[in-house]
Write a structure and sequence with these properties.
The protein is mainly alpha-helical. The chain has nine helices and three strands; from the N terminus they run ααααααβββααα. It has two domains: about 70 residues, Fe,Mn superoxide dismutase (SOD) domain (Helix Hairpins), CATH 1.10.287; about 90 residues, Iron/manganese superoxide dismutase, C-terminal domain (minor pseudopilin epsh fold), CATH 3.55.40.20. The structure holds manganese (II) ion. InterPro entries: Mn/Fe_SOD, Mn/Fe_SOD_BS, Mn/Fe_SOD_C, Mn/Fe_SOD_N, Mn/Fe_SOD_N_sf, SOD_C_sf.
Amino acid sequence: MFTLPDLPYAYDALEPHIDAQTMQIHHTKHHQGYVDNLNKALVDYPELQNKSVEDLLKGLNAVPEVIRMAVRNHGGGHANHALFWQLMSPQGGKPVDAVAKLKDQFIQAAMTRFGSGWAWVVKDAAGKFQVMSTANQDSPLSDGFTPILGVDVWEHAYYLKYQNRRADYLAAWWNVVNWDKVSELLV
Ligand code: MN
């Protein structure tokens, strides 16, 4: 069964950019909910419980149709958030030029994602970087891309502190990017 990973820092570690209450609710309620619902979806499928969530998302078409949407939504939610926590840090390290130069395009993708979803810098099969966004909890893994950087633009990620000001959230979020993790993902 899948479990909620611990955060690699305290809930208040990303203050003032990302507030402690948002972090705590986001982790213990939202992410936990995705984990619980993923486990529920897989309860009758022990062979799928042994796969990694990344492999489930890469092979959604191999997941039985009756649970495919649940795996897409809740498996995506689990994988996206597990990565998201690691992509933030109070000590982010040195910006990675190849990714940092895509900032404007990345922020634009995050600003123009209508409704709930994510913006990403991903690597394609040829190793080329590109900016994309996904709706809901869809993972770039399901389209053959490897996520390198991703930001959650669901309102639950910012509404308590930033209300409707998504641009302010994104500007603040950029200050807590964990560049050490980004460079690890490039390899
Ligand atoms: Mn979220």
